[in-house]
Amino acid sequence: MTSIHIVTDENKVGYEAVLDEYFRLRHEIFVGERGWRDLARPDGRDVDAYDNEQATYLIALDDGRVVGGLRLYPTLLPHMISESFAHLVRGRDVLSGPTILECTRYFIVRERRTGRTDCRLLAAFQQFCLEEGITEVTAVVEMWWLPRWQQAGFKVRPLGLPTLIEGQPCIAAAIQVSSDSLRHVSRLAGLRGSCLVRAEAHAFIDRVPHVAA
Amino acid sequence: MSGRSLDHTVQAFEFIEELDRLASPQAIIDAMGRSFAQFGFENFIMTGLPHPEQQIESLVLLKKWPLGWYERYTRNSYDRHDPVIHLCRRTVQPFEWSEARFDPETNPRGKEIMQGAADFGMRQGYCLPIHGLNGFEACLSMSGPDLDLTPQAKPAIHLMTMYAFERARLVLAPSPRPNPLTTREREALRWAALGKSAADTGEILGVTERTITAHIGSACTKLSAANKTHAVARALQHRLIEI
């Protein structure tokens, strides 16, 4: 069964193989499938300026295989909306604050798009944000995602009008973090409890390979 | 041009804020009628897309359509042949009705449908597909004799329709909140709704008048109602009791 792992700078040592697979899938999906040519890299890994020690990843794993993921980044730092998509925000008044994160690079692998993986990742996302005291999450998203979020029970407020990006109408929006939304999406995901895995770095220490001097 | 697109932004955001205050399907239809008239829309329908064994009538959320056209459309199951519905299933992007091409050879009824709509004043149209979670498919299709579908207007219309759809879905969904009233409180209110006094109700239920008055009192508190009449009205309005 799919579980969603929190991967941060602190515990990434235990997720090396997972992260490599995750960046490879991002390249496959965002460059290969969606055609975001600007992200193309010869090593076939989508890694950008925001993949740094400030980023938190929620990665959906099934039997050790990556089936989806998203990236969260603090809005107090220069982030994608403030640096690249401020024109999508009404009055260029970019939303930022200590309890506001930005979500980017959301994906589910192709063979899992008809099932409940979306709802599981969205449930883990709400739960993680609640646990971390996050109140809102901003994102730029293709318009056809908006009713899906709403159907998942998310309260989403638009930050500007839809604007064409790579020929697709996209919108900057803020998702409210709430226990109501978590309850609703957990029900849709068929979850009785949590599917969020928070592994401490020390749990992996034994597994870190010793490097010969 | 930027002045105009700014107007559209203001208009879209005001409409979205207004939607939050609307509690009934008719209120949403009225607000949509007013707001979308500014783009030339006179008619619209918000509906789920039927599976082969479903009737479209059972999936319609909201509509402002000429009655004659709705009757003709449903009587003839036009949704099976409607080029707009066909395209709606295949794209996530909004499109103008004129973009919904069809081959008169393979779909002879396509022309009959588009012509029929035009005869009812629905000459131009704009359709906004919705592809939700778990295979849910729906659309909002809007029309009028002369539309403002400029590149400035379309993004505003797109955003407004997605929020109108969400509001309609929430208002029409069965209340997810459990009934706050106990069985006894519901019984007391139901008899009150039928004109019985507390004494009558006590006699019917085999308890004292004072007990009934206490049930009504606690129901009033739960419903933030000023008195028994107010509580009955609220309970009926929110379908907490039925008579």
Provide a descriptive summary of the structure in words.
The complex is a heterodimer of chains A (213) and B (243). Chain A is of the alpha+beta class. Chain A has one domain (3-201): Aminopeptidase. Chain A is built from five helices and nine strands, in the order βαββαβαβαβββαβ. In chain A, strands 1, 2, 3, 4, 5, 6, 7, 8 and 9 form a nine-stranded mixed sheet that branches. The radius of gyration of chain A is 17 Å and the shape is globular. The mean pLDDT of chain A is 92. The model of chain B has no long low-confidence stretch (mean pLDDT 91). With 243 residues, chain B is of the alpha+beta class. Chain B has a five-stranded antiparallel sheet with strand order 2-1-5-4-3, sandwiched between helices. The chains are: A alpha+beta (213), B alpha+beta (243). The interface between A and B is medium-sized, with 22 and 26 residues.
Helix and strand topology:
The complex is a heterodimer of chains A (213) and B (243).
Chain A: E1 3-7, H1 16-33, E2 56-62, E3 65-74, H2 80-84, E4 100-108, H3 117-132, E5 136-142, H4 146-151, E6 156-158, E7 163-165, E8 168-176, H5 179-188, E9 196-197
Parallel strand pairs in A: 1-9, 4-5
Antiparallel strand pairs in A: 1-2, 2-3, 3-4, 5-8, 6-8, 7-8
Helix pairs in contact in A: 3-5
Chain B: H1 2-19, H2 25-37, E1 43-48, E2 60-64, H3 67-75, H4 83-90, E3 95-96, H5 108-119, E4 124-131, E5 137-144, H6 153-172, H7 183-193, H8 198-205, H9 209-222, H10 228-237
Antiparallel strand pairs in B: 1-2, 1-5, 3-4, 4-5
Order of helices and strands of chain B: HHEEHHEHEEHHHHH
CATH topology of chain A: Aminopeptidase
The percentage helix of chain B is 40-55%
Q: What are the segments of chain B in which pLDDT stays under 50 over at least 5 consecutive residues?
A: none
Largest sheet of chain A: 9 strands, mixed
**Any guess at the CATH architecture of the largest domain in chain B?**
2-Layer Sandwich
Query: From the helix content, strand content and strand pairing of chain A, which structural class follows?
Result: alpha+beta
Query: Please, how many helices of chain A?
Result: 5
CATH architecture of chain A: 3-Layer(aba) Sandwich
Q: Walk across the major sheet of chain B and give the strand order.
A: 2-1-5-4-3
CATH class of chain A: Alpha Beta
pLDDT average of chain A, as an integer?
92
Instruction: Give the number of domains of chain A.
Output: 1
CATH evolutionary superfamily of chain A: Gcn5-related N-acetyltransferase (GNAT)
Roughly how many Å is the radius of gyration of chain A?
Answer: 17 Å
Query: Structurally, how many domains make up the residues of chain B?
Result: 2
How much is the average pLDDT of chain B? 91
